[in-house]
Description:
The structure holds four protein chains of four kinds. Chain B folds into two domains: 76 residues, Beta-grasp domain (Ubiquitin-like (UB roll)); 69 residues, [2Fe-2S]-binding domain (DNA polymerase, domain 1). Chain B is of the alpha+beta class. Chain B is built from five helices and five strands; from the N terminus they run ββαβββαααα. Chain C contains 20 helices and 27 strands. In chain C, helix 11 runs parallel beside helix 19, helix 14 packs parallel to helix 15 and helix 17 packs across helix 19. Chains in contact: A-B, A-C, B-C, C-D. At the A-C interface, helix 11 of A face helix 18 and helix 20 of C.
Amino acid sequence: MRYEAPTTVEAAVSLLSAEAGLAKVLSGGTDLLVQMRMGMMEPDLIVDTKRIPGFGDIVEENGGYRVGGAVPSAELNEHAGFTAMYPGVAEGADLIGSTQVQGRATITGNLCNAGPAADSVPCAVAVGCVARIAGPNGKRDVAIEDIPQAPGKTSLEKGELVESLFFPAKPANTGDAYLRFIPRTEMDIAVAGCGISITLDDTGTCTAAKVAIGAVAIKVLVVDEAAQALIGTKVDEAALDALASACSAAAKPITDKRGTVEFRKEVVGVLAKRAAKIALDRAKGA
Amino acid sequence: MGIHVSTKINGDDVEFVCDAEETLLDVLRDRLNLTGAKEGCATGDCGACSVTIDGRLTCSCLTLGAEVEGREIGTVEGVAKGNELHPIQQKILDNAALQCGVCTPGIVVAAKALLEKKPDPSEEEIRYWMAGNLCRCTGYDKIIRAIQDAAAEMRG
Amino acid sequence: MASSTGEAPESKGTHQYQPRDFKVVGTTPLRPDGVDKVTGRARFGADMNLPGQLVGKVLRSPHPHAKLVSIDTSEAEALPGVKAVVTRDDFAENEAHHDILCNIMARDKVLYEGHAVAAVAATSRAIALKALKKIKVVYDILPHVTDVDEAMKADAPILHDDMFTHGVDPMPTTASNIAGRCEFGHGDVDAGFEQADIIIERNFKTAATHQGYIEPHACVATVTSDDYGELWGCTQGHFVLRNVSASLVGMDVSKLRVTASEIGGGFGGKTTVFLEPVCLMLAKKSGKPVKMAMTRDEVFKASGPTASSSMDVKIGCTKDGRITAGFAEVRYQGGAFRGAPADFGAMCAFACYALENVKAIGWEVVTNRPKGAAYRAPGAPMSVYAVESVVDELAKAIDMDPIDFRLKNAARNGDKSSYGPKFESLGLVETLEAAKNHPNYQIPLGPNQGRGVASGFWFNFGGETCSTLNVNQDGTVAISVGTPDIGGSRASMCQMAAEELGIPYDQVRAIVTDTSSLGFNDTTEGSRVTFSSGMAVIFAAREIIGKLCERAAMMWDIPVEAVKWEEGKAIPAGANAGDFEPLTLAEIADAAGGTGGPIAGHHEYNADGAGVSFGTHLVDTEVDPETGFVKILRYTVIQDAGKAIHPSYVEGQFQGGAVQGIGWALNEEYIYGDDGKLQNAGFLDYRLPVASDLPMIDTVIVEVPNPGHPYGVRGVGETGIVPPLAAIANSVSDAANLRMTELPMSPPRILKAIHQAEAAE
Amino acid sequence: MVQVVLSGIMKTAVDDQAEIEIEAKNIKQLLDALARDYPKMEPYVKKGLAVSINGVIYRDSLYQKIPEDAEIFVIPRLAGG
């Protein structure tokens, strides 16, 4: 296995493109190194992105934030501007593993590892995050929900890597939140998760919403029916019940060592309801 | 085939050669004889291998040796200043906050990083910060008290 | 920390309890190994390296049950850098340790996923792993069984065709997975149930759990060409390890020296051998030192977890709360070989109660899982969980406070125990009274919150022990013990020696010696070390005192009978009182060269007279009715320690045991797929409790002296894990207004139970 | 003669008797006599047993004296974690 730490994104792309064997991008490495250690993956080339200028930066852009592909979640959570704008996204990132893991793990890696239970992804999806992908054919921007395809599988082409994630400016009266369920209080993979963004008008009526659920399908799901359940309402109990039902109905989970189908379907609805209440409070500026 | 790496460990310049697959933990333990960091799981779930890289707490088992070129590493061996124990080390002893002691190096490194970031953490903040450091002997009670005591002493 | 002291009953044991005013015992000095452990200098199993050492790795079966048709190692042996490969062919049959032999290296069959089939020593880890892939193993796959109830069925796949159930008369003539049946009790349970006003009968299940020590098994071994071996590694019992390993490898015991490294937790899991004989064999074959360490998934798949269980309990009581009869039938699977602790489970089930009619039956079963090892009070937590759950339900049914119910039926001095012998001295009632009076028992509960109580018991034992104390020329004292220190026992040894000799704690230093420096010592297990090694230290110190008095008598030229030892000094007594200035230990030690040479004390014995230890736990929980999540709000451990030598480490044992129990009750479990493979062989999905899961764990040390120990010490390590399973189940059942009968009470199980209870209403 | 109660797995080895009488002055004599008089007991004796004399459990002390009127239980050899 070779280890390379290029200092330009072009060099990274050409290394990834030229490798005939298995090439993997290393930013935080908290999934990759475990997979290698357990013998689940034997890459021929590892491309470390942390030496590429910009990959470790969080910068303001058009009223929103561009987060470099190698920014660890601990750093994201220390960024006062970002956490004030998108507390739900930051909280999701803050749930990835331990304090130690957060010192390395990146949202980009969480996304590109394509695990259905990735904690930082549902809320990032809900707030409309867009990934900038660099590749042999230049750069392209893609809504992040289109990147994971199935466990371990992404829509990235050979030679491509995610350079940064763009979180657009937050509309007025908008709040976000993410909740997940785990059997302990920390250190577990989500059994179910829900990220949600709610926008209100001046009268407190929901005008826009986006709901994404995790760990209940082969990838993070955007649930339009759930958003529709909120839009046009004051996000009252009836709307929240409809939201919960829509999420439970949309979930297509499996039974495994972490939870059962019935449990996941039910709890994802509970989480959606609870997350919506938090997002609502945030939208109201409470 | 080896990768040559120049780095700083506990303030001292260190050079080593490692294979691409080797983790920082492998390098510390097997090449540099710094065996304070332990391999409890090799998957980032136990925290016994905790170190700091450029001041940030992380698991050395989740870092490649090759990645630390030019970085500054802090390990448990560098926490005491000579024979003078760091308050967290002393308070762990005073509180009997260890039984077997295998998780203790990771606890020391993680708690020190917490107190540098947050001088007056609540019990809940301590518990969540330390959630990645498994201890099977103590039930954590005395560890949490030791960190609270160390925090109080360091605040003066 | 509150404390209560009970009356010391008359001693019947070998060693008399003598009340005294302690000076060092009961204080909390810093442990001698402390600084090394907080600075990273302490050397654990994997921290030792020898010049030119190789790396050893084990090839493990991917199948839960298969015939081992052939193993071809030729390609692996040909790989550059590979220095030795071992398989079953390298180990001779061994009648005395047959099961251990079959477990460390599979013979005719592999019996569980992870069963060792070969091992390699190579110049690097990478080459060793590559070599494992080049070993060709032909398996003839057999049907498997991992569930205890399934394994007992007549048509279950049979693991051992020579296993005929012990304890059934006549012994069956067809092989089965039932290794044995046992029965304990007295009286007539049928007649007892006749007298009951209310009878509750339930079935329970508990999952297998792992000791979960943070340090994986590790060792480094070297064997010279003239067959002298040395082994360094983490173990709870290096003398037992030496004897077993020497036997399996075919060495004289005297030629193998084993040094116990610092040990990163054991809880029973490091009382046997796994890697060590293999490591020695690789070292012998390669002619080089070999180091081996398990990965975490190997620890889960191939070391020894505890038993899973399936249990039926039936208890009857009168309206006023007197238990008239108790019956339990427990079925434990302990993995692929004999040894599931069903006997201890049956013995402990009703140990808290003085019953006229009691019967407990235990079934010991084998399945295609790793060979179980001891885990803290082996066998007791499960059966006590079942019994204490039904007890709780009975108390509720007759509307009686659960502590009052227990007090009404509690075993007291002179009562016949449920496993036979009369109790000589026990502190159960004291723990129950302390629980009832504890402020945590009075705190009002909120919605979805519940309170649980449970008591538990462990026998404790002593065992073969010896210890040597050497007086140094400067008057300090070196203690050699043969029992590895896992929880701070070296500090306790120093305290007891200092107490006897009358010198300060910091002038005594204890080490755990290697196997060549002391006679045989039993393993650190069964809560025996502070009791047994401690007593050896006390008696060795007393021997030293005798010698010190002799030397002083010589220096003063008076009869030794006229010298007494007080507060660290020899004092002329009787007719000579006041004639000479007292001589300190340091002064006598300094003069020792001229008065007969070095001064040492030694004691060797079978430590009998261990005192039973009872505990009562209180726990408040809150259950999220929408997700089934359980939060532990507060937790209180009350246990009889006899006499706490180092109260902080006693509290630590209470707290650690309780939290292991919390893990067992709520989330920890071995999860098997239909394929017979373990699905959660890592800390991520095995789910030990983490710091944020827990509140502070309050403790109360009760001290009812053990009449069989000069200071009254009882072992404290194991009892702490016995009550939590039931205490938490009772608390959760109270919070959610239902009855949980399966462990772990993971959120999906609780939520399902909540829905079932709703549907039933 | 001492009265001995065998519990657990061993009860069937003494033909399900609640109590048996054995001539023994110490633990070794007791165990030897058990193995001699009740051949089915031999494997248990070989594997190792513990003996309770008046409530004190002895795991290894073979020559521990047994008083005439002692209450004797033979139980499995204790182990622990």
